[in-house]
Amino acid sequence: MLRGYNAAAAGMIAQQRNQEMLTNNLSNANTPGYKADRASMRAFPNMVLQAMGTDHAQRYGTNEIGEISTGVYMQEATPNFRQGDIEETGNNTDLALLQGEMPEDEETGEQGALFYNVQNEDGDLRYTRNSNFTVDGAGFLTTGQGYYILDDAGDTINVGDEAFNVTRDGEILTEDGAPIAQLEVSHVPDPAQLVKEGDGLHNYEGDGDIVSAIGDDALPYQIQQGFIEGSNVDLQQTMTNMMQGFRNFEANQRALQMYDQSMERAVNDIGRIT
Questions:
Q1: What digits encode the pLDDT tens for the residues 78-127?
Q2: What SS3 string covers the chain?
Q3: pLDDT, tens digit (0-9, with 9 covering 90-100), for 156-182
């Protein structure tokens, strides 16, 4: 009986966390460069049931009756780094990063992904696909949240004002064609090792080497000025998953109520002394 309580409660907790993840995806459907999270559900180890005090072993040659499930849990939420739709904005500071076919990671079989290099408020290196850039009061190219965009030397980029041009390979030029800097574009071999930190920033916690994609034919990309990469959240699929998750939550809730009613009867009726 108590095992049923635990399994139903675990299912409700897993679906609640899944709903929270899907809700966050839905709320970021219009966030440039946002990568939707995907839930990884896992089952707790099954328990083996054994017959006690019966002739089960003599009849079947074993005391084992079978296995019983002990519930599920949501192990983690991993971002889906599929390219989002490219949207034209006309803003000179919006620089959409379009990546071509990326090589697969030898261990995971997953494709790598390309990112801009960003300096966070602590001066640490982070990565982003949010290409909705701006120019701050000092003339530096930053994200919309004020984090500095870095060039291929790891330095911040001072463009002066919004009157600049960017080539397809990421070279920043003045209106007269004079070079200012080269935008760094980094290849992350295993994007699953990236951890979201908010404001579109990702921290890499993997072991693979992150290399520059600049001039590397095996890591094709283009930068389109005046465009942004939209969120890759699939609204219809997300709503469908939310409805399915809600039904699963309700099913576990009803099972929990049934166990509760059975336990109440066991305590109040079966155990009553007449």
A1: 888 888 999 999 899 999 999 988 888 777 777 889 999 999 999 999 99
A2: CHHHHHHHHHHHHHHHHHHHHHHHHHHCCCCCCCCCEEEEEEECCCEEEECCCCCHHHHHCCCEEEEECCCEEEEEEEECCCCCCEEECCCCCEEEEEECCCCECCCCCCECEEEEEEECCCCCEEEECCCEEEECCCCEEEECCCCEEEECCCCECECCCCCEEECCCCEEEECCCCEEEEECEEEECCHHHEEEEECCEEEECCCCCCEECCCCCCCCEEEEECEEECCCCCHHHHHHHHHHHHHHHHHHHHHHHHHHHHHHHHHHHHCCCC
A3: 999 989 889 999 999 999 988 899 999
Position with higher pLDDT, 31 vs 77: 31
Is the pTM for the entire model greater than 0.85? no
Domain that holds residue 10: 2-79+234-270
Same domain, 190 and 162: yes
Cα 21 from chain centre: 9
Q: Looking at residues 223-233, what average pLDDT do you find?
A: 93
Strands of the 171-174 sheet, one edge to the other = 164-166, 171-174, 179-182
Number of compact structural domains in the chain: 2
Q: Are residues 94 and 215 in the same domain?
A: yes
Mark whether 90 and 53 lie in a shared domain: no
Model pLDDT for residues 194-215, shown as the tens digit of each residue? 888 888 899 998 887 899 999 9
